[in-house]
Specification:
Structural class: alpha/beta
Shape: globular
Largest sheet: 5 strands, parallel
Bound molecules: 2'-deoxycytidine-5'-monophosphate
Low-confidence stretches: 229-245
Number of helices: 9
Oligomer: single chain
Helix content: 40-55%
Length: 245
Amino acid sequence: MSFVVTIDGPSAAGKSTVAREVAARLGFLYVDTGALYRALALKLGAGGGSVEDAEGIERMLAATRLDLSGSPAEPHVWLDGEDVSGRIRTPEVSELSSRVAALPAVRRWLVRLQRSLSERGPVVGEGRDLGTVVFPDAAVKIYLDADPLTRARRRAAELEGRGIRVPLEQVLEEIDQRDRRDRTRAHSPLRAAEGAVVIESSRLGPGAVVEEVLRVIRAHPGCPPPAGGPRTGSPPPGPSPRSGD
Ligand code: DC
């Protein structure tokens, strides 16, 4: 297995910002696992499918190609050959993705895909269960947290930056619901992995969190030497693991 850094935590804790910067600084591959769940939610929603229909979900997975490419500064998500990087960021997809993420068949399918992505080189991955389930032997595990109001403010600002205005109370409520679903689901619930370094970022700027994460990674004896520059992901999308591979 390559050198893997996992950054888990609740939604809008700052994982993406931190993971992308850390991956860019170290020249590691950036793996946004939430984007994979979002892409499957997009496909399910667009096809009029339901999370209740287990057979339909299995059929959908068997007919899905999903891949990541690009750099930490400009990551891309490919769903069945189409770049869906923008379309997976709507509040509707956010909501459906936490339901899709509770399905064991989806999680199993994505565990295989996430592990195969880590074969491309040293990785900084962000998600909910990377340190606990996907990469239990990861070299470095981080759990990034912040209080709900801070996270709601960050998410509202991020949405506004993309031209989507949502009242803070509504964002807070959505975050609350998704947290509850992510933390209480039977399969791979969100929690800090054993041995994870926990960083509470409510009173820290992203720069301070990045420096702390870099310090922890560089202190690991297996940390690869710096590469020439930020790694790109994969070549343009080709075949990706399918259910049953
Ligand atoms: O990080 P995000 O908001 O893009 O994640 C979207 C949803 O996917 C979120 O509700 C939790 C789920 N998720 C998960 O269950 N496990 C992961 N490793 C990543 C995301």
